[in-house]
Write a structure and sequence with these properties.
Strand order of the largest sheet: 1-2
Helix content: 40-55%
Largest sheet: 2 strands, antiparallel
Shape: globular
Oligomer: single chain
Distance between the termini: 48 Å
Radius of gyration: 28 Å
Strand content: under 5%
């Protein structure tokens, strides 16, 4: 009774009998041991009292409440949410009302009422001047993708489908489970799902562990997660989550836009263009090239140079579809004068070939670049329609490239590591993208601040070969100044993309980054050697309580089983490794299972890991050093 009187006095908009009903309803809910309600269950709880309330209204009210426990709502907070909703009915308004519109229109290019209507403006409770926009069309289509991609998953099926017309996606992704599943959908086997914390009630610590897996796995597949932490995900920060979801979806859509998987992409080379030049193109540029290839084959007079203005009238789409699958898609819709109706008729054709995804007539006509890019990528993935290449001496350079896979895994790991430093441009193909020296010089400057004299660097691209070699010579000189072993390596070797020499300098950069991090965490600041890392690993493995073996070097054959690395992990945090999940056999499948398990546990602990299970199974010393070094950094940071 005292609670009811206190709460009624605190919230005059509520009558004592209202508060009594609210308290009674709250106490009947599925609460945790501390009498708290999981925030994901707040909406149906409020709707038991206020049945007409919409998801986003309830969610917006919660954002105005200072909650004591992240992810949970206690009685006082629950009452406050309903009081805020009642106050809004009385006309107290909010940031989303008409009064907030002029400021919003200056935000992220919102220049018209029409564009404003499909944006959600989010203001920070802690900082009233801080605001972000959410594109509602993108939120809707990304939610549709999640629903379709993860339908039937036994761990999260009860949470699907997510309503694409509300902000529910941001609440459902807070615990890391859906995002982990989405990463595995885009890039299969990235995460060993055995390490994930599942269940309807996860503790804040379990949520943090899941989100560590998400952040570090996202880095490992090429997402840029600079300034995104596990706490940001747990707090459901909408603009960060939407950006991360888009990156994960895009990586999945772009995965097959690869000349190694589709050698027939060689047909897209233009007159006088070399394969080397073609490989420098990012995936979205290759999609535009593919789009235009089919427009030209159709005898169409137009070409596309973007995924916005050039597709708004649907004409290029109509011609593309009719060229890809003429039996199902005609050009009749070109005669439709109304742009929205024309877009709808075009999408009906796409539906007939199973490709009505990511866009609506409105987002076509408005020219949303992300959604139209996704639509075209989906068309490519399902109907590339490029004739296989015939045997020809003209394809010799392609054959050489396709069979030059000796360095692929190492190059991929190093490219992902460079991207984690936030270098610009993004590194897609290591040997091609470091040729002008700019990425390497950026990496040097980030690891050894002030080591690069940028006044002597040629930065205005495109660069002549002479200017590129000046930059790569500069990079070699900086490396030598930091005692890198670069005997026999010249700038021209990097500009020529000589694999072994490019890998040599990038590997030493990566190792320097690890050693520097470890030195900064040590008490005496002493440089950490390979021997130090091996000694730490042996000592940590021994503390796990198992009969751990010792390793003599990073090329020790015993590392292949994964058992030693799992012992190190368990020594870092006792109980994090489930012994029932460790494969004891010696088959390739057993070894790979253990390697995957070790990598995902390392990410769960917060380590940034770029090696693949195969690197462990094949005992690649360089990559295992990066694994041990990352774990050692995590361990030192905790202490």
């Amino acid at each position: 009774m005292a609670d009811i009187q206190r709460l009624a006095k605190k919230h005059p908009v509520l009558k004592p009998w209202d508060v009594e009903t609210i308290v009674s309803t709250f106490n009947s809910l599925d609460l945790d041991t501390n009498r708290g309600l999981d925030q994901r269950h707040l909406v149906p709880a409020v709707q038991k009292i206020e049945s007409e309330r919409q998801y986003d209204d309830i969610r917006a009210a919660l954002k105005k409440v200072e909650v004591c426990r992240p992810g949970m709502v206690e009685l006082d907070e629950f009452v406050e949410v309903i009081a805020i909703l009642r106050e809004s009915d009385a006309g107290s308004g909010g940031a989303g009302g008409a009064a907030g519109k002029p400021a919003a229109l200056a935000f992220e290019g919102i220049t018209s009422d029409r564009a404003y209507e499909r944006r959600t403006i989010l203001q920070s409770r802690q900082n009233a001047s801080s605001a972000h926009t959410i594109n509602e069309d993108e939120r809707e289509e990304f939610t549709n993708h999640v629903n379709l991609a993860l339908a039937g998953d036994k761990d999260i099926d009860y949470r699907l489908p997510i309503d694409p017309h509300t902000m529910q996606i941001f609440d459902e992704t807070r615990d890391g489970l859906i995002l982990s599943k989405l990463i595995n959908y885009s890039t299969p086997d990235t995460i060993d799902e055995r390490v994930l914390n599942r269940g309807r009630k996860l503790s804040p610590f379990q949520v943090t562990e899941n989100n560590n897996v998400v952040i570090n796995s996202a880095k490992a597949i090429g997402c840029s997660v600079v300034n995104i932490g596990s706490q940001d995900l747990a707090e459901g920060r909408e603009h960060l989550l939407l950006g991360l979801i888009w990156q994960i979806i895009k990586i999945g859509l772009f995965a097959n836009i690869d000349i190694k998987l589709h050698p027939e992409l060689y047909r897209l080379l233009e007159d006088g263009e070399t394969l080397e030049d073609f490989l420098k193109l990012p995936a979205d540029a290759i999609l535009l090239r593919w789009f235009n290839y089919h427009l030209a084959a159709a005898g169409w007079h137009r070409r596309v140079s973007n995924f916005s203005g050039d597709i708004k009238d649907s004409e290029n789409y109509i011609v593309l579809l009719s060229q890809l699958v003429p039996s199902q898609c005609s050009r009749d819709a070109l005669h439709e004068a109304d742009l929205t109706e024309r877009a709808e008729r075009m999408l009906q054709g796409a539906d007939r070939i199973g490709c009505r995804r990511y866009v609506s007539p409105k987002t076509v006509v408005n020219g949303n670049p992300k959604l139209n890019l996704a639509f075209v990528a989906h068309l490519f993935n399902t109907h590339p329609c490029l004739e296989p290449l015939e045997e020809s001496a003209d394809h010799a350079e392609l054959d050489d490239y396709l069979f030059r896979d000796e360095y692929d895994r190492e190059a991929r790991a190093f490219a992902l590591w460079l991207n984690s430093l936030n270098v610009d441009p993004f590194v897609n193909y290591l040997f091609e993208d470091v040729k002008n020296g700019l990425v390497l010089l950026q990496a040097f400057d980030k690891i050894f601040p002030g080591s690069v004299n940028w006044r002597k660097v040629n930065t205005r691209t495109p660069l002549t070969r002479f200017k590129q070699i000046e930059n790569t010579n500069n990079a070699v000189d900086v490396g030598k100044a930091h005692k890198f072993s670069l005997v026999g390596i010249q700038g021209a070797d990097i500009t020529d993309g000589v694999p072994t020499l490019v890998l040599a300098i990038v590997w030493q950069l990566m190792r320097a980054n690890i050693v520097q991090t470890l030195a900064s965490l040590s008490t005496d600041g002493r440089e950490v050697t390979d021997r130090d890392m091996i000694d730490w690993a042996n000592k940590t493995a021994a503390s796990s309580g198992s009969s751990a073996t010792r390793i003599r070097s990073f090329s020790d054959p015993s590392l292949a089983s994964g058992h030693f690395l799992l012992d190190v992990l368990n020594g870092m945090k006792h109980g994090i490794v489930d012994p029932q999940l460790i494969a004891t056999g010696n088959t390739d499948d057993d070894l790979k299972l253990n390697a995957k398990y070790a990598i995902s546990i390392a990410r769960k602990l917060g380590a940034t890991i770029f090696l693949l299970p195969e690197d462990i199974v094949e005992v690649k010393p360089k990559m295992i050093l990066t694994f041990i070094g990352s774990l050692m950094a995590i361990d030192h940071n905790r202490k």
